[in-house]
Amino acid sequence: MVLFTENKEKNNRTAHEDDESSTQAGPQQFIVSSPPANHNADIKLEEVEKVVASLDSKVQSIDSKVVSLDSKVEEFLNIQTFMKHDFSIYKHAFYEKMDTMAANVASSQTSLETSLVHKFTEHQLRLPVI
């Protein structure tokens, strides 16, 4: 709504000529209303604002979830690196122990073979010749 003030004395001559009964002098106020508002457009605008606010909230929620996922992925990568390093240490220790065991088996086998050869030789010497 717009409010206009008009000085009736300045424009009194033309208004007085048209309307002889107008005798008021001094400022006059006229109220000019704005065009009727489209109520449906206001409702639709409010609905759109609510949808936009909801979408903003969802985007912020998704952003926080992405940040959380990023930190979890980083944590998993750190764990993976640690596990690779740890596995490498265990693998090295395992192969070292396997090599030691293989060397012990080979040594025991050689010792057993030597012992058996001596026993067979002794046994053959004790046997009477027929």
TrEMBL record:
Biased composition (Basic and acidic residues): 1-16
Polar residues composition-biased segments: 22-36
Chain spans, region Disordered: 1-36
Domain of life the protein comes from: Eukaryota
Record-given protein name: Uncharacterized protein
Organism whose genome encodes this protein: Dorcoceras hygrometricum
